[in-house]
């Protein structure tokens, strides 16, 4: 690889992103597996790309993919190969999105509030009962809350949720070997294919059963491949990103006591905490991938046809051009100028409202119930190894 092309490593993404931004708005970068893509490093260029008619989501526009140069055991294959709305454009994207969008309307999300509060209380009861020692807040709250909510929505039985978490975690893990990546890709399809088969035999009051019913109502409204990949997208995105939102917000407050004091005094709200966390430490830092269907220009930079674009949603959140010279500072009193943590345009995250509800509910309950909560002394808070997501492998705290 050319010496002047930087390599994006799966740790310390914010520091690396600041370096990339210093090189320009569109920067060649090497990612997992030695693949070279063009990283978009600022708010304005991302907004331009998301609105450009020749920037697409279908991998057939990516020259290396079309020419067979990207192997099926590439560690990021689950972000490129899916047959769902994440990798669809135009009418096909609208068709797939419509099938699930009604489940995430503001009214439907609000109906879930009592159940989210109930699950949160149960998890905090269990954490407190575990004793006075350090508690891993990720394992105790940030992971099981969204996993339980999304699993109940889609009808995933409790005994299968740990296995599902393991599979989804591998999708985000940048240290996954090619062999494990290929097996994970196959295992995900088998796992959720089995869920679809079970719900076809024994339908229930869940979204998987609803998707199967929608599939049966039309002539090819939803193929088997589309069904399974839609489940992978909705269940995976429905818990992994919210898990990191809760963990990142809790860590930010525990390392910025002056900001936590603003919430406790009523000068800032829990909604402010969620929005500033989404801006400052977005759950999705880089989303692979979008592709140039024609030669085009982004932020004055020529990008040839057939290139892959790595969209830096986390980079946009700390872009001084959008958020000021103190964009790197966690500040609950700042004037929010619009972040891109949930993307923008046709691919805006369907689950944004649910993520905000879970995040604000969990954080308010946690810090209200345990006013003396603090990070456990002498315990490491390691980053989860990923170029896609920002989160922590563990978040040890003392509840107090």
UniProtKB/TrEMBL annotation:
Pfam families reported for this sequence: p450
Keywords: Heme, Iron, Metal-binding, Monooxygenase, Oxidoreductase
InterPro entries with a match to the protein in the record: Cyt_P450 (IPR001128), Cyt_P450_B (IPR002397), Cyt_P450_CS (IPR017972), Cyt_P450_sf (IPR036396)
Entries under CDD domains matching the protein: CYP107-like
PANTHER family: CYTOCHROME P450 YJIB-RELATED (PTHR46696:SF1), P450, PUTATIVE (EUROFUNG)-RELATED (PTHR46696)
Family: Belongs to the cytochrome P450 family.
Descriptive protein name: Cytochrome P450
Biological source species: Nocardiopsis terrae
């Amino acid at each position: 690889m050319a010496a002047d092309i930087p390599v994006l490593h799966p740790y310390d993404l914010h520091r690396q992103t600041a370096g990339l931004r210093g090189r320009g708005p569109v920067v060649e970068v090497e990612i997992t597996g030695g693949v070279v893509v063009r990283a978009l490093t600022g708010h304005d260029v991302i907004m331009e790309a998301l609105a450009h008619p020749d920037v697409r989501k279908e991998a057939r526009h990516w020259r290396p993919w079309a020419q067979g140069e990207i192997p099926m055991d590439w560690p990021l294959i689950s972000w490129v190969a899916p047959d769902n709305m994440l990798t669809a454009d135009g009418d096909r994207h609208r068709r797939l999105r419509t099938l699930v969008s009604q489940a995430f309307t503001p009214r439907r999300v609000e109906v879930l509030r009592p159940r989210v509060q109930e699950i949160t209380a149960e998890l905090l009861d269990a954490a407190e009962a575990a004793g006075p020692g350090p508690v891993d807040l990720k394992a105790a709250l940030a992971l099981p809350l969204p996993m339980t909510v999304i699993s109940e929505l889609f009808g995933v039985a409790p005994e299968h949720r740990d296995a599902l978490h393991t599979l989804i975690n591998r999708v985000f893990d940048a240290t996954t070997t090619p062999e494990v990546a290929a097996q994970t890709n196959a295992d995900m399809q088998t796992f959720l294919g089995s869920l679809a088969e079970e719900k076809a035999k024994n339908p229930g009051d869940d979204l998987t059963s609803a998707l199967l019913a929608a599939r049966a109502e039309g002539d090819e409204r939803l193929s088997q491949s589309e069904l399974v990949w839609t489940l992978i997208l909705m269940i995976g995105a429905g818990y992994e990103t919210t898990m990191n939102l809760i963990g990142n917000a809790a860590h930010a407050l525990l390392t910025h006591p002056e900001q936590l004091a603003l919430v406790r005094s009523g000068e800032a709200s829990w909604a402010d905490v969620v929005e500033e966390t989404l801006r400052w430490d977005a759950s999705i830092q880089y989303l692979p991938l979008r592709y140039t269907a024609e030669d085009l220009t982004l932020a004055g930079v020529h990008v040839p046809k057939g290139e892959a674009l790595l969209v830096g949603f986390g980079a946009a959140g700390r872009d001084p051009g959008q958020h000021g010279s103190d964009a790197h500072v966690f500040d609950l009193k700042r004037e929010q100028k619009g972040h891109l943590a949930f993307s923008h345009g046709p691919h805006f995250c369907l689950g944004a409202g649910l993520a905000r509800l879970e995040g604000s509910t969990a954080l308010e309950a946690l810090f209200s119930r345990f006013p003396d909560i603090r990070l456990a002394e002498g315990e490491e808070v390691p980053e989860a190894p990923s170029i896609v997501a920002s989160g922590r492998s563990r978040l040890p705290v003392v509840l107090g």
